[in-house]
Amino acid sequence: MPSPVSLQPAPGGAPQLLLLEDDPAIARTICYALEREGIAVTHSLLLADAREQWSRQRFDVLLMDVGLPDGNGLDWCRELRAAGSFVPVLVLSARGEEMDRVLGLELGADDYLCKPFSPRELLARTRALLRRSRQFQPQATVQPTCSLQIDEQGQRALIHATALDLTRREYQLLQCLMERPGRILSRDFLLEQIWGLDSESTDRTVDTHVKTLRAKLREHLPTQEVITTHRGLGYSLSLPA
Questions:
Q1: How many structural domains comprise the chain?
Q2: 134 vs 192, more confident
């Protein structure tokens, strides 16, 4: 069996990507394209090895094939989401049927790319996922005295050290607002940052998630209005004391 493709260590702080691909030729092309962009890649040929790598290291994004010699990538994607992982997942597959793509997205994948694909498109989609997970954006410093905190490594939000029961999209929405406290963010901006340009979601999707997020914040901060609606403009967040 061919050895997994390896890369030279990326610079400190570089995004960490796990690639699960059983075709060495495809993997080399992917690794070369991502390495040029400064992304550190760990490559696994088999699902079992990818699981082991996942348990030993923190990754910022996961690129996975579907049909593997020792299992199905979509089954693992479903397990990761069930376990509460918010790490972006891009599915790579030779299956181009609409139902296969829909199934992948319904099981928790963030994006789906059919083989054969161009390295340029793969890179663009990977960068988009990393931007949405805040790997390519400056991180705002939350005031130490603020009762609302973002735990980026744990991918969770806390109020008075108590974790909020948020969905993945609610967490991403709150993080996006907290990185820009006091600024009015339009629905279009939030859609692009969280759901992506290719998403079929609408302004209503943003409104619905803001509504549910606001309700969860009020459970812990009943006397403070953390998220403010600006009619015709968007939403802003005020950091609670």
A1: 2
A2: 192
